[in-house]
Design brief:
The chain has eight helices and no strands. With about 130 residues, the chain is mainly α. The longest helix is centred in the first third of the chain and has 18 residues.
């Protein structure tokens, strides 16, 4: 089934849809025990993180490049180096994003397409080597 819009940004509902997705994502980060380690990485307020992820996803999904206009190239890995991100934190991020996307009401094929792009992106943020022994 073809995507009925030109961009994922439009499929998400434009600027309001991206903001709603990010707000739900961070609501889960803030309140769900499944995201406790991820929540600890953030400061007392999630306002800045909400705003930056909204701006980033707006451009990343084909909307206006508002993150780049405000902050320059995302340099995602470099910007996340101050935070210890391992497998647990990556998995918690994906857990929250998967649920936020499920609740967003997207067709399955669009949701799955987004997740196939977000999973390697989330893995790329890992900067901590865990002891497996």
């Amino acid at each position: 089934m073809p995507i009925p819009t030109d961009t994922l940004f439009e499929a998400l509902g434009g600027a309001d849809g991206v903001r709603a997705l990010v707000d739900r994502f961070y609501d889960l980060v803030e309140s769900d025990p499944e995201a406790a380690n991820l929540r600890r990485l953030h400061g007392p307020s999630l306002a800045s993180a909400r705003e930056k992820l909204t701006l980033y996803l707006t451009g990343w999904t084909g909307g206006p490049p508002v993150y780049v206009q405000r902050y320059g190239h995302p340099m995602l890995r470099a910007r996340h180096l101050p935070f210890a991100i391992g497998v647990t934190e990556r998995n918690e991020w994906l857990w929250c994003m998967e649920r936020a996307l499920q609740e967003h009401g997207l067709p399955d094929e669009i949701r799955e397409f987004l997740l196939t792009k977000l999973r390697p992106l989330a893995d790329h943020m890992r900067n901590r080597v865990e002891d497996t022994g």
